[in-house]
Amino acid sequence: MSLTCQVQVILNNISKKKAKAVKKALEPDNVNFPKGLSLYVENIDSKLIFNFESKENMKQLVGTVDEVLEHIQVALKVIE
Question: Is the pLDDT assigned to residue 72 strictly greater than 90?
Answer without folding.
Answer: yes
